[in-house]
Design a protein that fits this description.
This protein is of the alpha/beta class. Helices cover 40% and strands 22% of the residues. The protein has a single domain, classed as Rossmann fold (3-Layer(aba) Sandwich).
């Protein structure tokens, strides 16, 4: 069974696409651990396992993670046990480094990179969120530029200029994969 990796810049629509894939029963969400503060609509144990810095470091010491990453000053980790116990494909919403860590750990994955139509459109989307300062948005745009140079490392790239069209392309690619149940 192959698990699914969705990557792309912050604000490109990964979470929205992921939510639809899960709602339709195509896969299950991989619940990563993070030290980042919970956003308003996020639910503990559904979106992430929110833990303190000290809890996270203890989990690292115990070897509980396949991959660990610091993003914008917060730690994120993928639990090995969750992958081992999965009954259906897990969906990982991770950055390029997270995808490479999963590949290097020999986790069977199908990888998709979601692109914005342009960096200007992405910046507008981030500003509409209203949850980031302009300094944070500029950092995210800088990171997006870097991430987009790595898109060719993925099995498939999809531009999200229309959410429904993008979602249908992602879903179609997943369902057409030979190793997908």
């Amino acid at each position: 069974m192959k698990h699914i990796v969705l990557s792309g810049p912050s604000g490109v629509g990964k979470s929205t696409i992921a939510d639809r894939l899960i709602r339709e029963g195509i896969c299950e969400r991989n619940i990563s651990c993070t030290t980042r503060p919970r956003r308003v609509k996020e639910v503990r144990g559904v979106d992430y396992d929110f833990v303190s810095d000290s809890e996270f470091h203890e989990m690292v010491k115990r070897g509980e993670f396949v991959e660990v990453k610091e993003i914008f000053g917060h730690l994120y980790g993928t639990k090995l046990k969750r992958i081992q116990e999965a009954k259906k494909p897990l969906l990982f919403v991770v950055d390029v480094d997270g995808m490479l860590s999963l590949k290097n750990a020999h986790i069977p994955i199908l990888t998709l990179f979601i692109l914005p139509p342009s960096l200007d459109v992405l910046k507008t989307r981030l500003m509409r969120r209203g949850s980031n300062t302009m300094e944070e948005i500029d950092r995210r745009i800088e990171r997006a530029s870097y991430e987009m140079t790595k898109k060719d490392l993925y099995d498939k790239q999809v531009i999200n200029d229309d959410l429904d069209v993008c979602y249908n392309k992602v879903k179609g690619f997943i369902e057409s994969n030979e190793e997908f149940p």
